[in-house]
Write a structure and sequence with these properties.
The complex is a heterodimer of chains A (about 260) and B (about 350).
Chain A: E1 6-15, E2 18-28, E3 33-37, H1 44-51, E4 64-71, E5 74-75, H2 81-85, E6 88-91, H3 103-108, H4 123-136, H5 151-164, E7 169-173, H6 181-198, E8 201-205, H7 209-215, E9 218-223, E10 226-231, H8 233-236, H9 239-246, H10 254-257
Parallel strand pairs in A: 3-8, 3-9, 6-7, 7-8
Antiparallel strand pairs in A: 1-2, 1-4, 4-5, 9-10
Helix pairs in contact in A: 4-5
Chain B: H1 3-13, H2 17-22, H3 26-46, H4 54-65, H5 76-111, H6 123-136, E1 142-143, E2 146-147, H7 148-167, H8 176-201, H9 205-213, H10 221-239, H11 242-247, H12 252-257, H13 262-284, H14 290-302, H15 306-330, H16 336-354
Antiparallel strand pairs in B: 1-2
The chains are: A alpha/beta (about 260), B mainly alpha (about 350).
């Protein structure tokens, strides 16, 4: 399975009068792996939610949308929810489980767009669930209650659910937040593997600049809703930009540019 | 408390291995439930103020329901009791038990709240107020066993949900906690209306009170004929919503990402759950605990997958309520709502203690 391209054209997202994202234009090619960076409140998550399924010009997060989002060169509004879910998977920033739920049951939810609407999962779905659990390396957690897991383990389980969904475009909202170094690297390696081996297109909101610079070939930098830089990490993360966008001493992220 | 202590406690709270295996064998649980259901149903037809011998009961049922050519050896009174009084009553208890359990599954899943039950969006208060007002009207009419009380209770239940739906703008993208709070507020308002109605009711107070506790003692074939189709229809719709309820396990946004038309599913789940609840409440009064406890107990044994949870809740809910009604009947027509509370609450506590993994509220 190969990835699909994602294109934003003059994308503006507003909550009432407030513009969270303003006139962003960018293109992510199939099988490309791109990180979305920016300080808190820059509009990263809002932008991600606009891409991740919406209708009638309203994004999943409730923001009003103008401009265009194209997936595989087809406008987002021309997809229906079910077919979009077979192409795009989303890993949300945090997920709360209301009822006791085992890891394998969580991963199985990723098959919902593919399974038979009435009869439920078939042999192929079960195989995909097993494969996803295997690939993310959480076989030992299969029977555990999701709510008993550490944040890192829980994040891996949610990733396995997205892998089971067999997406061609994977959107992630801060997939490494709260994770320790070992889990951060594990998640990054998994994403890289998905892009390289399966050709999945990946767009991830990243809070950790160093991690993003190390694992992503291309960064998009948002500041107050506007796209201020787009390119290779060394070109995007200049000392000047870090000072103006993040308002911190560039020496603090020096590692990123080395 | 250190993490390891928490971990130990949680490990200790994990269910026994044989229960754990059942989680992967929902068909066995369904089969066991059906056996229990049949036994309870036959017992429900046998026992009461007059006991009909088991042989006669089975013969009458085979004769009248299946048309078997059985030689009539029983008194005509036994046949009247079984066919005219107890059979509709047992059928009604089974249907209402299944309906309330499924409505509970649907509303807990939709609102993602373990405390939700079929009455959470004002149905109970609406129906109670409607019934109380009907009892206050001096002119009573009854057509085929239906009176103003059934009509107004049904209308009151649906009216209350409609108001909650409109006020909370559930059709738009309001948050679900605001829906719950709206349901609570409207419910309280209607309960105040009920209180003032009861205050003014004088001699009918006892009747209102009796209605509030629920009973199947007035079940009749005409009631079954009108109520059952509504319940069966709503139940059938709910049984097809497994995919939606599964998608909603991680919340509405994730459900949308999994391809669900969240707005439509909200409406379908809410309409079906409200319809069956209103029909159940209108005919039998307020029977508590079934719609809260049955889904939880089934979920703890069979897991949260709605493909198993929905049918199992329907089967076990039907069996549970038919059994509760049987107990109510042999203990001298106690209100069935009392029985469901007396059995349901301690059993629920026992189950919760066993599975201390518990809920994140």
């Amino acid at each position: 399975m190969s990835g699909v391209s994602l294109e934003l054209r003059d994308l503006t997202l507003s909550y009432g009068a407030r513009r969270a994202v303003e006139k962003v234009t960018a293109r992510v090619d199939a099988a490309e792996m791109v990180a979305l960076l920016g300080p808190n409140g820059a509009g990263k998550s809002t932008l991600l939610r606009a891409v991740s399924g919406s209708a009638n010009g309203v994004s999943a997060g409730g923001a009003r949308r103008t401009g265009q989002v194209l997936i595989d060169d087809v406008p987002l509004d021309e997809y229906d929810g079910a077919s979009l879910a077979r192409i795009v998977a989303v890993v949300p920033g945090q997920s709360r489980v209301a009822f006791p739920l085992r890891v394998e049951e969580l991963v199985a939810l990723g098959r919902i767009p593919h399974e038979h609407p009435l009869l439920g999962p078939r042999a192929a779905d079960h195989a995909a669930i097993d494969a996803a659990i295997e690939r993310v390396g959480i076989s030992a957690l299969r029977g555990r209650d999701v709510r008993e897991l550490s944040l890192g383990e829980r994040q891996l389980a949610v990733l396995a659910m997205a892998v089971a969904q067999a997406p061609r475009l994977l959107l992630l909202d801060e997939p490494t937040v709260h994770l320790d170094l070992r889990h951060q690297v594990k998640v990054m390696q998994l994403l890289r593997d998905l892009a390289k081996r399966d050709g999945v297109t990946i767009l991830a909101v990243m809070h950790d600049i160093n991690l993003a610079a190390h694992f992503f070939g291309r960064l998009l930098l948002l500041d107050q809703g506007r796209l201020v830089a787009d390119g290779r990490p060394s070109d995007v993360l200049t000392p000047d930009r870090i000072r103006t966008v993040y308002g911190v001493d560039p020496a603090l992220v020096a590692v990123a540019r080395s | 408390m250190s993490t390891s202590v928490v971990a130990q406690r949680r490990a200790a709270a994990r269910p026994a291995a044989w229960i754990d295996r059942l989680r992967h064998r929902p068909a066995w649980l369904a089969l066991a439930g059906l056996v229990v259901l049949c036994v309870v149903a036959v017992a429900g037809v046998m026992f009461g103020s007059v006991a009909v011998p088991a042989g006669d009961t089975l013969a009458i049922l085979a004769h009248r329901l299946l048309g078997w050519p059985v030689i009539v050896t029983w008194p005509a009174s036994a046949e009247t009791i079984v066919v005219e009084l107890r059979l509709p009553r047992v059928l009604m208890a089974l249907a209402v038990g299944a309906a309330l359990s499924l409505a509970g599954v649907a509303l807990q899943g939709l609102l993602r709240n373990p405390l939700a039950d079929p009455y959470v969006l004002g149905t109970a208060s609406g129906a109670a107020l409607g019934a109380a007002l009907a009892l206050l009207v001096p002119v009573q009419f009854a057509l085929l066993g239906f009176g103003l009380i059934h009509v107004l209770a049904f209308a009151g239940a649906l009216g209350a949900v409609a108001i909650v739906y409109r006020v909370s703008r559930l059709g738009g993208l309001s948050s679900l906690s605001s829906v719950l709070l709206t349901g609570y507020a409207i419910g309280s308002l209607l309960a105040a209306g009920l209180a003032i109605t009861m205050y003014l009711s004088g001699q009918t107070l006892r009747q209102i009170f009796f209605y509030l506790l629920g009973s199947f003692s007035l079940a009749s074939w005409p009631q079954v004929a009108v109520g059952l189709p509504i319940i069966v229809l709503g139940t059938a719709v709910l049984l097809t919503r497994a995919r939606s309820l599964n998608a909603l396990l991680l919340g509405e946004e994730t459900a949308a990402h999994l391809g669900l038309d969240v707005r439509r599913e909200r409406l379908v789940l809410l309409a079906a759950a409200s319809l069956v609840t209103a029909a159940a409440v209108a005919m039998t009064g307020l029977i508590g605990f079934v719609g809260l406890v049955v889904p939880h107990v089934v979920r703890l044994v069979a897991g949260p997958n709605a493909r198993a949870l929905l049918p199992l809740s329907a089967i076990w809910g039907a069996a549970f309520l038919a059994m509760a009604d049987l107990i109510a009947r042999v203990s001298g027509e106690l209100p069935v709502g009392v029985i469901t509370g007396v059995i349901g609450a301690p059993f629920f506590l026992f189950v919760l203690r066993r599975y201390r993994g518990g809920y994140e509220l």
